[in-house]
């Protein structure tokens, strides 16, 4: 999925200066942005925080009734230096990319694209699609050793599930409580979908060295003494070994975390780089070169790159 803002700003993040080494409690309300015809809530990056571990981008969309609408429609666009993690609660998405992948997937299935040095892809709802569309698009920043690697696509229909009284937890990426997702990772992290039954309190195990955050996808929960609903992210910092989640109604949330990302990065549009100069080079290559390839299965033009910001930014910390 793309960041379709027509005037994106460069965002500097990473390094340990902005990471809370102790438990934190920061509530962030998302902002609404347009993704084609779809309204999404952007939780990360935000004005106060840029990263949670290596997670550098979070969009939450839906639930939207698209029975009489085309649904998601994102033309071919580029990515560098990151992984895209597509997660659906309702609906279907067709992914096509410049390395020849063509895959439809639905709820509970992981769509994982590693951009590496360069890839282009398109995502849209199939012509015949379910009535509801509800999900999250997340990006993971790739560390230096892997950000120039070959692009790839993975689809995993079977993911590990942890169950207990009042909860069902699917490990989307990384590892939780000894259960590991088959999705390829390049730094220590966790991404999990947690379903909590009304009136239940669940105790989730956490890695003490990770920083964590939770995003409510549906319902209303109390986490760390705070009542939160959809469209809200709670940043929890580091040094926690467990997290209590209580649900007022049947609820779903995403648990995201990872080791603090030590490298400093620059994000702009759909690129994750290390300098303004790299951003400029990636944009030029996408518009004029061939490194990103062509999404040949897509019938239509690619998405043009927005204009660059007026002045360069340098890599900075995880917070603004």
- What is the class in the CATH system? Mainly Beta
**What CATH architecture would you give?**
Sandwich
Counting structural domains, the number is: 1
* Terminal Cα span: 25 Å
Q: What's the SSE pattern?
A: EEEEEEEEEEEEEEEEEEEEEEEEEEH
Low-confidence stretches: none
Structural class: mainly beta
Within CATH, the superfamily carries the name Jelly Rolls
Share of β-strand residues: over 45%
Report the count of strand segments. Answer: 26
Q: Share of helix among residues?
A: under 10%
Global shape: globular
Overall mean pLDDT stands at: 93
Summed up, the helix count is: 1
| CATH fold label | Jelly Rolls
The major beta sheet can be summarized as: 8 strands, antiparallel
Using the CA coordinates, give the radius of gyration.
18 Å
Q: So what's the oligomer here?
A: single chain
Tell me about this structure:
InterPro entries: Pirin, Pirin_C_dom, Pirin_N_dom, RmlC-like_jellyroll, RmlC_Cupin_sf. It is a single chain. With 320 residues, this protein is mainly beta. It has a single domain, classed as Jelly Rolls. It contains 1 helix and 26 strands. The model has no long low-confidence stretch (mean pLDDT 93).
Short recap of the structure:
The protein has 320 residues and is mostly beta strands. It has 1 helix and 26 strands. It starts with 10 loop residues before the first strand and ends in a 32-residue tail after the last helix.
What brief labels describe this structure?
26 strands; Jelly Rolls; single chain; 4% helix; globular; eight-stranded antiparallel β-sheet; 320 residues
């Amino acid at each position: 999925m793309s960041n379709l803002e027509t005037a994106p700003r460069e965002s500097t993040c990473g390094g340990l200066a902005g990471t809370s080494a102790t438990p934190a409690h920061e509530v962030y309300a998302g902002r609404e942005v347009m993704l084609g015809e779809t309204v999404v809530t952007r939780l990360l990056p935000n004005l106060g925080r840029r990263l949670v571990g290596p997670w550098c981008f979070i969009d939450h969309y839906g639930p939207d009734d698209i029975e009489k609408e085309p649904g998601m429609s994102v033309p071919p666009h580029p990515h560098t230096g990151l992984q895209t993690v597509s997660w659906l609660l309702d609906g279907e998405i067709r992914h096509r990319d410049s390395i020849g992948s063509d895959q439809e997937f639905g709820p509970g299935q992981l769509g994982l694209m590693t951009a590496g040095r360069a890839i282009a892809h398109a995502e849209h709802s199939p012509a015949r699609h379910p009535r509801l569309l509800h999900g999250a698009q997340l990006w993971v920043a790739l560390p230096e050793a892997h950000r120039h690697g070959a692009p790839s696509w993975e689809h995993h229909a079977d993911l590990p599930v942890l169950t207990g009284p009042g909860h069902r937890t699917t490990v989307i990426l990384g590892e939780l409580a000894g259960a590991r997702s088959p999705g390829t990772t390049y730094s220590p992290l966790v991404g999990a979908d947690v379903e909590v039954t009304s009136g239940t309190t669940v105790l989730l195990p956490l890695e003490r060295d990770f920083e964590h955050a939770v995003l409510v996808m549906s319902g209303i929960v109390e986490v760390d003494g705070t009542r939160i609903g959809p469209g809200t992210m709670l940043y929890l910092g580091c040094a926690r070994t467990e997290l209590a989640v209580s649900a007022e109604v049947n609820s779903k949330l995403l648990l995201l975390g990872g080791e603090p990302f030590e490298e400093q990065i620059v994000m702009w549009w759909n690129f994750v780089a290390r300098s303004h100069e790299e951003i400029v080079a990636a944009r030029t290559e996408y518009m004029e070169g061939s490194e990103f390839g062509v999404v040949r299965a897509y019938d239509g033009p690619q998405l043009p790159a927005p204009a660059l910001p007026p002045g360069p930014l340098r890599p900075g910390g995880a917070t603004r």
